[in-house]
Design a protein that fits this description.
It is a single chain. The protein is an alpha+beta fold. It has one domain (4-144). The protein is 33% helix and 29% strand. It has helices at residues 4-20, 26-40, 129-144, and strands at residues 45-50, 57-61, 64-69, 74-79, 83-89, 103-109, 118-123. The strands form 2 sheets. The protein has a 4-stranded antiparallel beta sheet with strand order 1-2-3-4, covered by helices on one side. Strands 5-6-7 form a 3-stranded antiparallel beta sheet, with helices on one face. Strand 2 and strand 3 form a beta hairpin. The two termini are 25 Å apart.
């Protein structure tokens, strides 16, 4: 049976491997591999998400969320009780023919303006919705765990 520490190390390594697969600029990859990895030492990662276009990431811990942005050079820590989820389903109510958004999920924080979290999953095509719903379900599960 694996120890909790081994599982924690594996989850940190999986996160770092996923970061490496993004093919980020070397300085951004190094920032994750050294600075972020050092901060995560001893932390239990429950889940993580990556924005492939920006290199930003969300790291779900037991009682909090860590937002990392290599471009901004920030790691922001949000207690779970300051994070909220919003879901908007517009499939049945287009307001305009030019409106392309069908479905949207957002994790956001109730924090000062310069420190706010805004992690969004938008769907402009029907086939994107099931995957986004699965991701939002994992957010909700994390938010509701004690």
């Amino acid at each position: 049976m694996e120890s909790i520490e081994t599982v924690n190390q594996e989850n940190v390594q999986k996160f770092l491997d996923d970061i490496s697969n993004l093919k980020l600029d070397t300085k951004f990859n190094n920032w994750y591999q050294y600075d972020v990895a050092t901060m995560l030492d001893g932390c239990k990662i429950e889940n993580h998400e990556l924005d492939e276009s920006s290199g930003d990431s969300l790291i779900f811990l037991k009682s909090s969320l860590l937002f990392c942005s290599p471009e901004l050079g920030v790691m922001r820590h949000y207690p779970k009780n300051l994070v909220h989820c919003f879901v908007e389903d517009k499939r049945g109510s287009y307001e305009s023919i030019n409106e392309k958004l069908l479905f949207r999920g957002e994790l956001f924080s109730v924090t000062p303006d310069t420190e706010q979290l805004c992690w969004v999953r938008d769907c402009q095509n029907d086939y994107e919705i099931p995957e986004t719903q699965t991701i939002i379900a994992s957010w909700m599960k994390w938010l509701n765990e004690h």
